[in-house]
Amino acid sequence: DYGTIKKVLAPMNQSSSSCLLEEIELLPKSQREPIRSLQILHSQSVLFVGLQEHVIKVPLKRCPFYKTYSACIGSQDPYCGWDVVMKKCTTLEESLSMSQWEQSITVCPMRNLTVDGHFGTWSQWKPCTHTDGASVGSCLCRTRVCDSPAPQCGGWLCEGPTMEIANCSRNGGWTPWTSWSPCSTTCGIGFQVRQRSCSNPTPRHGGRVCVGQNREERYCNEHLLCPPHVFWTSWGPWERCTAQCGGGIQARRRTCENGPDCPGCSVEYQPCNTNACPELKKTTPWTPWTPVNISDNGGHYEQRFRYTCKARLPDPNLLEVGRQRIEMRYCSSDGTSGCSTDGLSGDFLRSGRYSAHTINGAWSPWSPWSQCSRDCSRGIRNRKRVCSNPEPKYGGLPCLGPSLEYQECNILPCPVDGGWSCWSSWSKCSATCGGGHYMRTRSCTNPAPAYGGDICLGLHTEEALCNTQPCPDSWSEWSEWSNCDSSGIQFRVRQCIILFPVGSQCTGNTTETRTCALDSNFIPEVSVARSSSVEEKRCGEFNMFHMIAVGLSSSILGCLLTLLVYTYCQRYQQQSHDATVIHPVSPAPLNTSITNHINKLDKYDSVEAIKAFNKNNLILEERNKYFNPHLTAKTYSNTYFTDFNNYDEY
């Protein structure tokens, strides 16, 4: 009903009863549910348990579950037995021999209730150490044990940590550098910034702060020149009106800087002096009398004239010739009477326009623009022209318009180079002893760089050492060595007597361990105490005693080697002499052949020398066999040399 499987040992015979071997709770109490079906797969020794939404596979042979001999034998499990060689609970198939496999299934096992483990109370906080990179820090630790109660008979182990750690000193560490920021300018020289922070990890509980810069700057776009800025200059002043009255036109102008593509017009017009002009009237003086090609009774006529002009014009110089007035007189040829205008006093008017050879003035081309009065922030430049193309003559009209023109130039603001602000006050020292550091900062805001000006050069942060005097001893005395534990280790502890250590205070381990001395029946080796300095000095010395000992040993070894060589040579010569002994009746030529064979021994090694020596002995025996005195000389000679030559060839 709640997901428990009972494993029962079948009865051996009708008189015996079955035994309950094991109860298995498949699920925790909060997740229990009824079992729907059970099915055994004998080929794999597996039990399949069917639940509402799951299938659980349980092995029939659970021998590794029993860790000790008593648990293995006492389980009465027919699948399991204790292997006395491997020292563990195994199946029969896993054991190498049945003779080394023990099992007992005659008595039912005792029923034990499963007990889940629970933690005991926490211990007191104690100093402990932890490793942070290459440095060792101090912490407070406490522990608890799963013994209230301990898990039994397959009960659940305690869930949760067995140790708690708090107040660990931790040195600060830099985070990785951020990516470089976008350049401060799209063209032209600018700068980029990247940063990092002392938060990987953040220093705490007396740990050291990060040392170094948290900000880096670099130039950018040094070689990317900005394209010229195309813009209109400001409008110039209005030019002089084309008429002083009666309505005229005046213009003003502007120019496109750094290119011809500025939108809009470069000239702007407006009407001017629209008031009506006053009427002008002008009469010229009389001209001198001049003769006229008319004669009368020996006399002649003379005439003079003047002009009268009247109009509404803005400029008297624009007044054209109007009506012409002429006077005539008669002069006698004999001079008896003067010239007289009688009879000619009637004025007669002749209408017409006077056309003289007048030359109107015209402007010369504009001169080039002058140099700008300022390099930046709006300067002024000008250009000139002269009314000399041509000059006005014979009453001709003068040039209209200004002879001098002004224009704004270099309207961009001047670059502003950055300047450092004053240094801030020094910060508080990071440690009271053992060497700390403090810092001060400044910013590039006096003024800030603008309009392409240079940024400030140099560091914006300065650091200096402080409180470099050594710290007083901050550790308590070491405690006594503890008793040996089950693993054969002793330890002793010390505590930091400063509440908030800084700098190098309380650096090092709070605990020391050592291996316990093992009990033994042997008398420990007694070593004579010597000064370490003397031992180190003697270790590297080579004194006169050493030289005498080495020389004497070399002499003795040389004598022994010489004696050994001499003995070997004497024995070798004796063997050679015995091998070359010839019968007194042996012919003389035999000595040469035998000697040649003996000399050949020098060319052989030890094995070949023995073979050659045996061969010579065999030759001597064969030779003596043929030295029979009853043989005739001829027979002896032929027989011996034939056989001897055969041996020599062999």
UniProtKB/TrEMBL annotation:
Listed name of the protein: Semaphorin-5A
- Record has Disulfide bond as a keyword: yes
Q: Where in the cell is it found?
A: Membrane
Cellular component GO terms, alphabetically?
Answer: membrane
Transmembrane segments annotated in the record for this chain: 544-566
What the entry lists under InterPro entries is as follows: Compl_asym_regulator, Plexin_repeat, PSI, Sema5A/B-like_TSP-1, Semap_dom, Semap_dom_sf, TSP1_rpt, TSP1_rpt_sf
Show the SUPFAM superfamilies listed in the entry.
Plexin repeat, Sema domain, TSP-1 type 1 repeat
Q: Which UniProt keywords apply?
A: Differentiation, Disulfide bond, Glycoprotein, Membrane, Neurogenesis, Repeat, Transmembrane, Transmembrane helix
User: Which organism does this record belong to?
Assistant: Phaethon lepturus (White-tailed tropicbird)
For this UniProt entry, what is the primary localization, expressed as one broad class?
Answer: membrane
Q: Where would one find coiled-coil regions in this protein? A: none
Report membrane topology: Single-pass membrane protein
Which biological process, per GO, is one annotated for this protein? cell differentiation
Q: Where is the Sema domain?
A: 1-60
